[in-house]
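Anyone up for a design puzzle?
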């Protein structure tokens, strides 16, 4: 039977390894759009980068409501869904800093600077989502 994760457990779960988040944003017609993102937790914020002209970038500029799902698709199956509102920044120094930190998680320290330089440029956005609601379950199939 599924069990609720503690605050400490879900934070460790979403921060473990290179799990991507599946980010859901709201399209102009109200329908959902889902895309994978690399991300980090920073306190009570989820932080990621995206292109200003991507579907998710345009959606976030218009309507900041998001949900991010992170899961383990191996038995006994665990998942975390984080909901909140996005705040967008185009500050290049902060964007490059966070793009480099995020890249270190997903690509390793040796490639982080190159990815930070690639993703911390004009036309990209730094997105912070203040976490307002958490649904975190472990051992769903037990």
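Challenge accepted. My sequence:
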């Amino acid at each position: 039977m599924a069990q609720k994760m503690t605050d400490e457990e879900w934070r460790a779960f979403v921060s473990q390894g290179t799990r991507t988040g599946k980010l859901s944003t709201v399209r102009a017609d109200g329908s959902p759009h889902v895309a994978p993102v690399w991300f980090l937790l920073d306190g009570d914020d989820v932080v990621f980068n995206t292109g200003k002209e991507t579907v998710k970038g345009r959606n976030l500029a218009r309507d900041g409501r998001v949900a991010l799902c992170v899961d383990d698709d191996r038995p006994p199956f665990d998942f975390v869904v984080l909901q909140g509102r996005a705040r967008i920044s185009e500050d290049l120094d902060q964007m490059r800093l966070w793009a480099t930190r995020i890249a270190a998680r997903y690509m390793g320290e040796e490639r982080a600077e190159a990815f930070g330089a690639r993703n911390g440029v004009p036309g990209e956005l730094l997105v912070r989502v203040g976490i307002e609601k958490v649904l975190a379950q472990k051992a769903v199939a037990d």
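A detail worth pointing out: Residues 92-107 form the longest helix (16 residues).
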